[in-house]
Amino acid sequence: MIPIKLEIEGLYSYRKKQTIHFDKLTAAGLFGIFGAVGSGKSSILEGILLALYGSSERLSDRGEKSSLLNLRSSSLSVRLTFRAGKSNVQEYVAIYQLNRHSTKEDQIGTATHQFYRKSEDGLEPIEEKAPEILGMKKEHFKQTVIIPQGKFREFIDLTPGPRAEMMKELFGLERFDLSAKANHLAKNSRDEQLKIKTRIESLGEADESLIKEMKGQLEGLEKNRNTLQDAYKLHEEQFKNKESLWGKFVEKEKLGKTLNSLNSAKPEIEKNKENLKLYQKANTLLKPIFDGIEDKEVEREKMSRSVENCTRFKGEYESKVAEFVKEVEKLQAKADQRHLREAKIKDLEKVLDIQELLSQLKTAEEKLQSLRPQLEALDRTKAKLTQEIDREEEGLDSLEEVDPGKLAQWQSAYKEWESLEGRITTSKEEIKGLKTKIDQEETALKRLIESLDSTSIEEEIEKAKLLIKQLEQSWEEWMEKKGLHNHAHLLVEGSPCPLCGSEHHPQPLKKGEMEEEQKLKNQLESAKKSLDRLQFMEKEIQGHGHQVKAQEQVLERENAQSAALEEELEVLKKQLSLENLSDKSALENAIHRCSKVLDQRKKLDLSLKQKRLAVKSAEADLDRKRLEIQGHENRKSTLQSTIAAKQDEIVDMEFCHPYFDKNAEEIKIQIYKVKSDIAETAEMLISKRRVLDDLRRKATANLTQLEGFKLRLEECVEALARLRKELKDKMSQAGFESEEGLTELFSRPLDVEKLENEIRAFEDRYLLISSQLEKLESEEGLAGFKEEDYVKAKEKLKDSKTSLEAKSKEITLLQQSIQDLGERLLRKKELEKELEKVEKRLITLGDMQKLFQGNGFVKYVSTIYLKELCATANQRFMRLTKNQLSLDIDDQNTFWIIDYLNGGKKRLLRTLSGGQTFQASLCLALALAEKVKSLNQADQSFFFLDEGFGALDKNSLRVVFETLKSLRHENRIVGIISHVEELQQEIGVFAKVDLDPEVGSVVSYSF
Asked: Distance from first CA to last CA of the chain, Å, rounded?
């Protein structure tokens, strides 16, 4: 995770919105955040944790969240922009918001917490939270990425169990928990074993002899099938001959019936041929003239109706034109009065303006009457505030003068006094505890030495080793005799031994010596156990000795530190006594008295400030009221002048006088009616004129059309007479007697092409059927054919086929049975092989289940990860301690220190001094962050440390700083929050946090 920008508003001391530009800070690789105590440095880390995980480091989520808000703020907002994911390429935004209750200031509403992913289209909301995006919980985030104040050594202080659990969750070691997988595989194998056994049982008995017997039966059946097959072929040939004659016989009968049907239809076809010839003749000679007569009749009728319509329209147009001429003359007379009516409207509009001005004048007078009392009240308020300011200034002058710097020195001295007393008490308790531990270690050491038979543990161990050596030699001799005893019957003096080849043989065991085996074995085991016990005791004696020396060294340091603290307290008391502060109670009273005076001064200053502001506000209100009154008076004068001018502009005052008593709506309605009537008259006049013009044009066009239609009607009558004479002459020539018969012929038109095709198709079919029938009648053997011969041949073929199919089916079933039996036998053998493999696998899986039982394997892998972590941390820790100390971890995941100044012996990490513990914690935290960086496949990693570095001396501080600077070459980004001046001088890129009394924490930068 790499932060880009953090925006804070309303959190702790951040009253106003502040932006921390991490992108500019992280570009340096190593940066700092500096400021005085209480300025708001650590609140930056609190803001990051709130934005990511929605909870604070200092306060509980239940009942304490209201204290997150600045006391003078009503809302809290934290917005963090950061990069995360693989290689830290994806950009995210986390927003946390919290509002104070609108009426109950000690309560807050529900917080909103949302994450967004940045894309080309902008910010899109996502459901994932910080644990999914960053891949770690808040507790692990505080130990690997951002380490809050006072939490630096938390990883070291974890007990072995939680520490292993943290490694498991952080690095996904649950994948090494193979117990469930082994159990699952074993269960699957047992299920597979049961399935195979069930399948073997379902195959039943499969025997080679049964297959051989069934094959013999198959040979006999195949011989019978061959005989039946020959008979079937003979019957099939006979049936094909009969079937051929049967088909020709059926076809002959069918053709005879078809020919009879065609002979019946032949007269109708001849009649159609005659009708077709007559229709074609009439259609060619007479149809064009006949159609022409019909067309001219239609045209003559049309012209007659047109003449009638135009004659009727002529009278209608003349009456309408006369009517519209009267209406236009009437509207024109009314339109000529328009200018007089418009003048009346303008006078009425001026009446409306005067009424509106009178209303505004009344409003202005009412406003003036209400503003004058307000002005007098503001004057009284200002005078009262001025008197109160004078009284409070007199009270402020009467208070005792107090030096805030001196008060701050006394408060600092009081805290230091309490701190020194507490540290002295703690030091004395530690000294007492150390003495108790030394006494316990010496008592245990004395008890162990007294339990020895001799004065030296080394002598006891040497005696035990010598005894074991003697017993092992006796055991070897006894085993040699036992071997000889087993082969004693093969030994012949002077002949080579079958085992070793020697011609001289030791004395074999005698009968009574056979019982010595178990006795020697028990003695040897007892001696080895005794040696193990002595060696363990030796380690305990050495351990107690080292503990006594170490505790004595610590005791010496604690005594010196306690004396130094008491001396420092005495110096502080002497300094305070010079100011007449003899004891702690006197100092406390002085601080209380000065604080009370300062509080009174602060309250009076605040009250005076507020009252002076109130006076200024009252003066501003007075000025605004005076300006407002002056404006209304000017407005009143302007309105009175405007009303007089409007009255002078009215032309017909006698007409307008009654309207002054009417309301504005009635006047507006009257104006609207007159205006509407004027506009309507103008529009109607134009419309009527247009209609009149249109009627006159239509009347003229109608007269023209009437003349044309009359002329065309005369032409149609002449054309009809000429066509009728021509039709009569042509009918005589073609042999048609009457015009009615011709009309009937043309009223039922024939489809000539279709009728011709039907006649042609009939003649072709008649010829084809006749020729085919003649050919079949000449066919050989067809004349004496009988249907009974065909039926008998068909029955014989059917019986033969049925017998052959039954025999073939019997053979197929037997073949299938033989094949199934063979396949079952083969499958049974394959399943027995599979069953053997599964049973062997079950044995192996049983061993794996025992191996992975519980979380033992995961704990083992966790220990390996912690050992690698120690190895990585030692690369820096040994450099920081000048190769005097290194870290180690045992199989129980407990941290130890290897002390090379004391022969490389081990001691618990808790025995380190405060500065050394800081160095160890720093190296482990950096190593852990490096592992997380590798886990996330990131090119860069971010490490933020909120630690005062007060436990380090100058040399250690220099070494730590050089270590932090070297991380830049490892592509690591390191941030430090501190108030140590040496660090501020060394780090060039930093953000500085200052606490402003009015706006809260303010962030500035070195760039």
From this structure: 24
* 244 touches 823 (CB < 8 A): no
pLDDT at 499: 47
Confidence at 154, pLDDT banded by 50, 70, 90: low
Give the three-class secondary structure for 178: coil
pLDDT in tens, 213-234: 777 888 888 888 888 888 888 8
Beta bridge partners of 978: 34
766-791 burial, b at 16+ Cβ within 10 Å, e below that, comes to beebeeebeeeeeeeeeeeeeeeebe
Q: What's the pLDDT at 21?
A: 92
Residue 526, classed as helix, strand or coil, is: helix
- The H or E element containing residue 79 is strand 75-84
In this predicted structure, what is the pLDDT of residue 762? 80
Report d(CA 589, CA 421) in Å as an integer. 19
Instruction: Work out the burial of residue 743: count CB atoms within 10 Å of its CB; fewer than 13 is exposed, 13-18 middle, 19 or more buried.
Output: exposed
pLDDT score of 3: 92
Length of the chain: 1007
- Give the type of residue at 143: Q
Task: Categorise residue 368: left if φ over 0, alpha if ψ from -120 to 50, beta otherwise.
Answer: alpha
Which H helix or E strand runs over 996? strand 990-996
Identify whether the C-beta of residue 752 lies closer than 8 Å to the C-beta of residue 276: yes
Which pair of tokens denotes residue 93? 């935004």
Amino acid at 660: F
CB 145 within 8 Å of CB 943: yes
Distance separating alpha carbons of residues 286 and 284, to the nearest angstrom: 6
Enclosing H/E stretch for 887: strand 885-889
Residue 351, pLDDT score = 81
- Judge contact between 985 and 26, C-beta under 8 A: no
**DSSP annotation of 36:** -
Any long-range contacts for 1000-1004 (C-beta under 8 Å, 24+ apart)? 1000/13, 1000/14, 1000/15, 1000/16, 1000/40, 1000/70, 1001/12, 1001/13, 1001/14, 1001/15, 1001/18, 1001/39, 1001/40, 1001/43, 1002/16, 1002/18, 1003/18, 1003/19, 1003/20
* C-alpha span between 262 and 251 (Å, rounded): 17
Q: Where are the alpha helices (DSSP H) in 660-780?
A: 664-734, 739-747, 752-777
SS3 of the chain: helix, strand, coil, percent, to 5: 75, 10, 15
Q: What percent of the chain has pLDDT over 70?
A: 84
Tokens of 852: 């992975």
pLDDT of residue 851: 66
pLDDT (tens digit per residue) in 588-620: 888 888 888 878 878 888 888 888 888 888 888
SS3 124: strand
Give the pairing type, strands 75-84 and 90-99: antiparallel
> Does an H or E element contain 117, and which?
strand 112-119
Distance CA 98, CA 95 (A): 10
Q: For position 170, what pLDDT does the model report?
A: 62
Q: What DSSP designation does 934 have? A: H
User: Across the beta sheet with 90-99, what order do the strands follow?
Assistant: 18-20, 2-9, 75-84, 90-99, 112-119, 122-126
Which two three-digit tokens encode residue 115?
């994450």
3-state SS, residue 125: strand
**In this model, does residue 114 exceed pLDDT 80?**
yes
Handedness of CA 440, 446, 451, 452 (dihedral sign): positive
Q: How far is CA 123 from CA 81, 91, 116, in A?
A: 11, 10, 6
The tally of CA atoms less than 13 A away on the side-chain side of residue 743 is: 5
DSSP, collapsed to helix, strand or coil, labels residue 745 as: helix
pLDDT, tens only, 618-658: 888 888 888 888 888 888 888 888 888 887 778 777 777 88
